[in-house]
Design goal:
The structure holds two protein chains of two kinds. Chain A is of the alpha/beta class. Chain A has nine helices and eight strands. In chain A, helix 1 crosses helix 2 and helix 6 runs antiparallel to helix 7. Chain B has four domains: 228 residues, P-loop containing nucleotide triphosphate hydrolases (Rossmann fold), CATH 3.40.50.300; 82 residues, Translation factors (Elongation Factor Tu (Ef-tu), domain 3, Beta Barrel); 123 residues, Translation factors (Elongation Factor Tu (Ef-tu), domain 3); 176 residues, Rossmann fold (3-Layer(aba) Sandwich). The chains are: A alpha/beta, B alpha/beta. The complex binds guanosine-5'-diphosphate.
Chain lengths: 268, 649
């Protein structure tokens, strides 16, 4: 088994544990590279079929191509997709033009996510969080309990070892299952290349710029890059020392602990 | 079965296909990443070491060190390498590392994920979370402080977690003047401790984390040191377990049903399998032959081995469920309901006997109770912990204990020495993991299990009976010379307890010799068997909820200790009925001394056979000085202190 085989095998193990332990599961889908890899791993784990619901929280600020990709890929993978947006907040005029990025993220992502979890009574959410994304994520568990407000008590997490996880819920809790925790950005691209996984074209450089990480249009900026092919990206990542989320500065850097704050509040 | 076919790339619009260079075959997959854990006593330099390692191997992001130096300056503090890590982890304000964190770095040879495990006592659970995924460990010791509590505790836990590749770093050698003598002293002390745990470190390395001595290359400060520098030692570690030489262990995770087809899913935890192999699943002993090994978007395989997540189909219909372990028919795991184990406890509440927990062993799950605790070990000294009354009946947080669990339903398992993954389990309380254990199996237990001797247990147990009776079943074992007063006291005690409403029964040695033990003589072997049977019968009586009074000379310590072990320390009250042999001889109620003196009774205890007095009985009664009533009172008093003895007597 090479390194990718091992990562794949462990992610498949985690996905299967999630499905064996929970009756109702959802996988939030951003259409980005990580969540497309997750869909792929789920198809590997369950004989080609994704056995749980997917959720797109539509902030209405996605790039046009992401909507196009969503509509095509959900048919192609045969997904059971739920789409939700916070109509009420949009009506109230919450927007990037008038509010700061933290408020918008809270209103257009965290709030509707919480409402949808309550609506479907999902016990577990499968997320594409990776430990290498930023330091706060390094503390994550594979199975991470969240309270009813989706809050993450990162100071008092249950222990997790020997392939055994927290899978029983207290009332109102749900569990975040994080099968990509051990993957790096580079692993993701190597796997996409090996498996021919479809991804949006925004990741590939045009006119000396490309997107490394996708978020809302007003706060997501391309990075300088000539990596127009997947092989170029892999080469670039082997040498880069800048952070993947550098292009999402407005959202992340509002305060030094912004990520931790956002994560503790239920944004993933 | 269309979903089994590889994805047809031509159905993906050009736009959503990742563009590729012409020659892609040349790019190698990443080399394996090795997880390494850093443990040791607080302030012995773990964070400094990790910061230094990141820096010296060139693994830090651009500009990081300058940024941190500037930040330190602005705060009026002198720069510390530990700040690098803290900065990376945004944790300066904590001053102690709050949780298991993972940092990536690389040497020339390969990549590593390092887990900066905290040394603070209350974060032990996080250390265990980090350490359990590590292939290897660095254990830091401050050269000037030497071996401390956590230095020992962490090593003990590493051994329980199954981490075998360990490098000991003797840090802060600069403070010790790079003294070879100081280094040698710590090496000697710690080697002795580790060998008691069965750990043989790969290396000891003298370092200064602060000054970067012996980190990436050998330094001139320690000319007397001939081993490798840290980076070289790292590169010598082997990545995780890859040998598939052990017998197959495939715990089932799930069974997926698609129309007619059944797919059996699981991860191979040991060994290998191939199409055509006959597997037996346990518990349940169900056999089937592998028909195919399916993979989605890849050609079907014909074989698979340790670490792979597989999807199988079988030739036969087979009724198995999640938790069953697939194995070769001739090398199946053990199946039973009684598991002896060494357990480390992380729960906020102590681990208690007769409390119901949940046991998880691979994908099996069963309710369980701790039926006995034979020894509690202080993980920082390896000493046996004794509770005030002399009975170790509970295991506190961060303690380790040897104990026996009784599972509600049969469980398949291996001895930890035979197979790591199926030889260990976790204990859950409510929704959380509160402990982990590795399974110990003696040859005798293995034989009993192999002969399909299996204990069965109903819902009514020792605790439920105790609740109804108002007291637990207990054995009061009276030992002493013939004529010392055992029977007199036993009869009085039985009367006393019976009158206060207790369930009580007196088992007299002579009476048993008339029935169950008729046919046994007085040879050493027959005496041992007499005692063993009496112990078994009294154990059953006690388990039935009865305070069982045994009066039996039982002259050897070994036989009495075996009885104590069999019955369970908390349920066994040893009473030494002590009267000088001369006094017994004058009493001689049965005229036996006279006969023995005349040579008519061979092997008579006290005359022609030895009596080994108990070394630490729960009660000692000097019957030539105390009245019968006073003796009875002393025993009743001891019963109150003996265990969870609840009722007023
Ligand atoms: N002189 C000296 N001090 C050191 C060395 N390594 C660590 N220290 C100091 O020891 C203290 C504790 O170090 P730290 O890395 O925070 O320990 P941790 O609690 O094990 O992570 C800090 O003040 C460090 O500067 C060393 O090699 N030499």
């Amino acid at each position: 088994m090479d390194h990718l085989d091992k990562l794949e095998a462990n992610s498949v193990y985690l996905l299967r544990e999630a499905v064996a332990n929970f009756d109702s599961i959802c996988m939030p889908w951003s259409m980005g590279k990580d969540s497309n890899v997750l869909i792929w791993l789920a198809r590997k784990a369950f004989g080609g079929k994704v056995p749980f619901q997917l959720l797109h929280i539509d902030t209405t600020y996605e790039f046009d191509e992401m909507y196009e990709f969503r509509d095509w890929a959900s048919k192609w993978h045969g997904l059971d997709l739920v789409i939700r947006k916070n109509e009420e907040a949009l009506k109230r005029g919450i927007s990037y033009e008038t509010h700061d990025a933290l408020t918008v993220t809270q209103e257009l992502k965290s709030v509707p996510l919480k409402a949808t979890i309550a609506e479907f009574k999902w016990q577990a959410l499968i997320t594409g969080v990776r430990r290498d994304e930023d330091p706060t994520r390094a503390k994550e568990r594979y199975f991470s309990p969240r309270n009813a407000d989706s809050e993450w008590d990162y100071r008092d997490q249950p222990p997790e070892f020997w392939g055994q996880f927290t899978t029983r819920l207290k009332p109102g809790e749900h569990i975040r299952v994080q099968p990509l925790l051990d993957w790096t950005e580079l692993d993701i691209w190597l796997y996409i290349r090996r498996e021919n996984i479809p991804v949006p074209s925004l990741y590939f450089a045009k006119d000396g710029k490309r997107y490394r990480s996708m978020g809302c249009k007003p706060v997501t900026h391309p990075v300088e890059s000539d990596a127009a092919t997947i092989d170029d990206i892999i080469e670039e990542l082997r040498h880069t020392k800048t952070s993947e989320r550098a292009g999402r500065a407005a959202q992340d850097n509002a305060s030094r602990n912004a990520m931790q704050h956002l994560r503790a509040k239920g944004f993933f | 079965m269309p979903h089994r076919l590889p994805v047809d790339v031509s159905t993906i619009p050009q736009k959503f296909r990742a563009p590729s260079n012409a020659a892609t075959a040349g790019i190698a997959v990443e080399a394996e990443r090795v997880n390494v854990v850093v443990v040791g006593h607080v302030d012995h330099g773990k964070s400094t070491f990790v910061g230094r390692l990141l820096h010296d191997t060139g693994s830090l992001p651009d500009g990081k060190i300058e940024q941190v130096k500037k930040a330190a300056e602005a705060e009026g503090m002198s720069f510390e390498y530990a700040f690098l890590l803290d900065a990376l982890l945004e944790e300066q304000e904590q001053n102690i590392t709050i949780d298991t964190t993972r940092i990536y770095f690389h040497t020339k040879k390969r990549k590593y994920a390092i887990i900066d495990a905290p040394g603070h006592r209350e974060f032990l659970k996080n250390m265990i979370t980090g350490a359990s995924s590590a292939a290897a460990a660095f254990l830091l010791i401050d050269a000037s402080e030497g071996v401390q509590d956590q230095t020992r505790r962490h090593a003990f836990l590493l051994s329980l977690l199954g981490i075998r590749q360990i490098v000991v770093l003797v840090n802060k050698m600069d403070l010790a003047g790079y003294s070879q003598e100081r280094y040698a002293k710590i090496v000697a002390e710690y080697t002795a401790f580790l060998s008691g745990l069965g750990i043989k470190p790969a290396h000891f390395i003298p370092i200064s984390a602060r000054n970067g001595v012996n980190i990436v290359s050998k330094a001139s400060e320690t000319p007397w040191y001939t081993g490798p520098a840290v980076a070289e030692a790292l590169d010598n570690f082997e990545a995780a377990e890859t040998s598939d030489a052990q017998p197959l262990r495939l715990p089932l995770q799930d069974i997926y049903r698609y129309d007619e087809r059944r797919l059996y899913a699981g991860r191979i935890d040991a060994g290998k399998l191939k199409v055509g192999d006959k597997l037996v699943f346990n518990p349940g002993n169900k056999a089937a032959t592998i028909k195919s090994l399916e993979t989605w978007n890849a050609p079907d395989k014909t074989e698979a081995s340790i670490g792979e997540s597989v999807t199988l189909t079988f030739n036969e219909q087979i009724f198995v469920e999640r938790g069953n372990i697939g194995a070769p028919a001739d090398k199946a795991p053990l199946v039973g309901q009684s598991i002896r184990a060494r357990v480390f406890w992380l729960g906020k509440n102590p681990l208690r006997q007769q409390t119901t927990y949940k046991l998880r062993l691979t994908t099996q799950e069963s309710a369980c109770v701790v039926s006995s605790i034979s020894r509690v070990i202080d993980s920082s000294t390896l000493d046996t912990v004794t509770s005030p009354e002399g009975h170790a009946l509970q295991v506190n947080r961060f303690e380790v204990a040897d104990l026996t669990l009784r599972t509600h339903k049969p469980v398949a398992f291996d001895a930890h020495d035979d197979c790591t993954v199926t030889g260990r389990f976790v204990i859950m309380e409510d929704s959380h993991i509160v402990g982990g254990g590795i399974i110990l199996v003696s040859d005798e237990e293995r034989r009993a299990l192999a002969n399909n001797v299996q204990a069965h247990h109903g819902d009514i147990n020792h605790t439920t009976r105790a609740a109804r009776n108002g007291h637990p079943g207990t054995v009061v074992w009276l030992t002493g010379l013939s004529g010392s007063g055992k029977s007199t006291i036993a009869a009085a005690l039985e009367r006393r307890l019976f009158q206060s409403g207790k369930q009580v029964y007196w088992l007299d040695g002579d009476n048993l010799r008339l029935g169950l033990n008729a046919g046994l003589g007085f040879s050493d072997a027959d005496r041992a068997e007499n005692i063993r049977r009496t112990a078994e019968v009294s154990r059953l009586f006690a388990d039935a909820g009865i305070i069982t009074i045994v009066s039996l000379i039982s002259p050897t310590r070994d036989a009495r200790d075996a009885a104590r072990k069999r019955i369970g320390a908390g349920k066994f009250v040893e009473v030494y009925v002590n009267a000088p042999v001369d006094v017994c001889r004058t009493r001689d109620p049965k005229g036996l001394y006279a006969k023995a003196d005349a040579g008519a009774i061979p092997q008579f205890t006290g005359v022609s056979a030895p009596y080994e007095a108990p070394l630490s009985p729960e009660v000692e009664l000097l019957t030539d000085k105390l009245s019968v009533d006073a003796c009875v009172e002393k025993i009743v008093e001891a019963l109150h202190g003996a265990s969870d003895f609840v009722a007023e007597i």
